[in-house]
Hints:
The complex is a heterodimer.
Chain A: E1 3-12, E2 15-25, E3 30-34, H1 41-48, E4 56-61, E5 64-66, H2 71-76, E6 79-82, H3 94-99, H4 113-127, H5 142-155, E7 160-164, H6 172-187, E8 191-196, H7 199-205, E9 208-213, E10 216-221, H8 227-235, E11 253-263, E12 269-279, E13 283-287, H9 294-302, E14 308-314, E15 317-318, H10 324-329, E16 332-335, H11 339-343, H12 350-353, E17 365-366, E18 369-370, H13 372-386, H14 402-413, E19 420-424, H15 432-447, E20 452-455, H16 459-465, E21 468-473, E22 476-482, H17 487-494, H18 499-509
Parallel strand pairs in A: 3-8, 3-9, 6-7, 7-8, 13-20, 13-21, 16-19, 19-20
Antiparallel strand pairs in A: 1-2, 1-4, 4-5, 9-10, 11-12, 11-14, 14-15, 17-18, 21-22
Helix pairs in contact in A: 13-14, 17-18
Chain B: H1 13-16, H2 22-40, E1 46-50, E2 63-66, H3 67-90, H4 97-117, E3 123-125, H5 126-152, H6 160-178, H7 181-205, H8 210-233, H9 237-240, E4 248-250, H10 260-265, E5 266-268, H11 269-287, H12 289-299, H13 301-306, H14 311-337, H15 349-359, H16 364-387, H17 393-408
Parallel strand pairs in B: 1-3
Antiparallel strand pairs in B: 1-2, 4-5
Membrane topology (chain A): Peripheral membrane protein
Subcellular location (chain A): Cell membrane
Keywords (chain A): ATP-binding, Cell membrane, Membrane, Nucleotide-binding, Repeat, Translocase, Transport
Amino acid sequence: MKLELIGITKRFGSLVANDHIDLVVEPGQVHSLLGENGAGKSTLMNVLYGLYDPTEGEILVNDKPVTFKGPGDAMAAGIGMVHQHFMLVPVFTVAENVALGNEATKAGGMLDLQETRTRIRRISDQYGFDVDPDAVVEDLPVGVQQRVEIIKALVRDAEVLILDEPTAVLTPKETDELLGIMAQLKADGKSIVFISHKLREVKAVSDVITVVRRGKVVGTADPSAPTTELASLMVGRSVSLTLDKKPATPGEVTFRVQDLTVQAANGQHVVDGLSFEVAEGEILAIAGVQGNGQTELTEAIMGLQDHVTGSITLNGNQLLGRSVKEVIRAGVGFVPEDRSVEGLVGTFSVAENLILNRYDDAPFAKGLSMSQSAMEQNAQEKIAEYDVRTQSAQSAAGTLSGGNQQKVVMAREFSRPLKLFIASQPTRGVDVGSIEFLHRRIVAERDGGTPVIIVSTELDEVLELADRIAVLYRGHLMGIVPGTVSRDVLGLMMAGMPADEALAQAHDVQGGDL
Amino acid sequence: MSTATTSAPARSASDATVRSWKNPIILSVVALFALLVFAIGAPGNDVTFRLSEENDPIVLPSIVVSAPVIGWVAALAMIALAALAILRTRSGRKIPVWVLAVFAVLFLIAFLTWVVGSARTPNVALYGLLAGSVTLAVPLIFGSLSGVLCERSGVVNIAIEGQLLFGAFAAAVAASLSGSAFVGLLAAAVAGVLVSLVLAVFSIRYVVNQVIVGVVLNVLVSGLTGFLFSAVLSEDSERWNSPPRLPVIEIPLLADIPVIGPILFQQTIVGYLMYIAVAVVYVALYHSRWGLRTRAVGEHPKAADTLGVNVNRMRFMNVLLAGVVAGIGGSFFTLVAVSGFGRDMTAGQGYIALAALIFGRWNPIGAFFAALLFGFATNLSNVLSLLGTPVPDQFLRMLPYVVTVFAVAGLVGRSRAPGASGIPYIKG
């Protein structure tokens, strides 16, 4: 099936999310859509899938114009989509999820799940998915949930499969498996639209690459094009993908975590017996796939978790059992993983957000009142220093772009002398230009002699920043390796292999650097 | 940093282990209470539970038990179960559900024996107690089914009270004017749909907070029917407010079975409809295409939308259907229970139905049994005040509400609401 988008424009009010985009997907082809977060890739695919009506432009299927009133029409035309955030009902079984909207029924509208199970098993066997139709979706690992999404599309005879940032939630091993599945689908004559901002993956699987920036197609590229060329096409200017940082000069070890165990409310050990140390002037990166205990670990250090045992000491003082405020007062700076929920108060002004951790100290607090002038002055300084693009210091923080919001959070946390700096996903959803700036700022803090902990699920970021890398898997520490270790080793550790085994195996294989 | 110079000891492992002591504590307190009141404070006489009347076609012998024996046996068994719960919790294991169930049944038996035994006449008709419970539960069951239909599709229905009340009002007026109770039944369904229509339009089309729309609707219906009652119905109650009652339909032979006969086979059409509705809603919700879509729309509307299910239409239809169910439930008040409408006669039953829905974990069968429990509590307080118990009347009348509070507070574990209940779906 040949799919063609001609001059697709989508406006939300005054915002132009897609600006006259043309795209041709040939049968049996993997067509990658490369672009930064917010470039308009997902909007375009939602238009294609019938979730949004295009403001202008038309969609051609096999050279015939079609209009999709909803996803039902798109599916009937042979388009299937695997969304970035899975569209699965968590409390349903696999069979129920697959049946939904396309139910096999017996007399009187009664469900015939047996029929659905048969179809699932057939597809599962054909592609080696190993999916149990009667498993409840919320109990399944993310990688399997993604396969359920693919089954959903295949059961509906999709000829074109849209995969929206499919690797964001996967381990490197699961990613490899997914790329394998994509190759199989392609061999069966299905077309795949692969949306990503990860250059390596795009280069590995694509037949054609279309680069999107600020809602426009800015060019097509061959998968053999060099990475830096793709990156500069994506960002719109030349970017240095490598950070020039001096080797670390670790000083005294001031931060120690010993036997740290965090239990969830259901009694599960989400962090289990963790011990590590961070010295002054070094960056320890904590790598791992999302949801392997990183959030709980950082929150335990900050005093945001209940049911924590073990010990956390900073300069010899126990932090465990202290309130968040005491931990902050002890000199810990913290950038939480979700800035819009935990990092900022969206409806507060930029100036107010910049002093959330110091509002009750001089010069901002004066007795019972607050000094507006001190606040304003502080805001102006920070906005200039961090190059925060905002209309004014009084604009609501929620109206800023992701990168600028993150600069506000970072500026606030760096605004006082720190004994320890922790950042969770410091550059998630941040444009490449701001990433450079934020990374430099973090390295500068390290060079100033602060112990730094970076939690990141992006291997690129981990390898960029880390002096040492600790890998978490299901709450266990797989080991701590030097920052110069290869991706293969990290990939194995992220899938649950202890460091020494992973190092030995990677040494044996010497696999290519994908 | 100067404030935290001494290193505080880390908390020990046992402190941080996640264990809920809620259930063992509640069980222990209740068991102790049972020991003090039902065993030590047991009346010395025998208690008689009658299973049938003398002129029934099939006469069963009455059950005669000794109050102290039952009191002591039950109290000791409850203490044993509480001890078991403590041991299980201490070793970090779960308390089996049967422990809670057996405990509840023992408490009920001990309480009944004690309270009837302490009455002036220690003799009660058990079959009447049960049949009365079902009768009182009928509007609750219809109400909570209405809630199931709405909430499973993602709309919170606080307006059950309003639906019941308007159904009752419409049934009374329509049946009085037409002279036919069946016309009243139809009118009740239509009235329920009208209330639902307002709820649906405001909460789905105009995305108004669903709880607020529901509460406002209840107040509106109460005000409207109250006004019409005093302005129209009371003026000429012969014409406007004297509906014929729905006839009781006895199913031959089956109705003569002791105890369960009157409960299952000696009902008005509203009672039979109730059983049918519970079964139909249950089967349809879990085994039909409509049910799968309804549950999907209530759990994860966006997922349903991406599969071509029209979320808001699905919700709209479900809310209207819920109006039919609750409206019919409302007709019970004026066509079955009493003949005629009274101001605010539903008296908060809609809210109790909401509680039954939560207690029943958003499941039609669960809601049915929860409503039965509430009906039983209400009926028990009625019967006991007739028998003349030592417990003050006011306390007995609190009983259903105390049971409600305990039930909804999650005595039997936390129940999980549909994921998108109360959250409007806006496309895009």
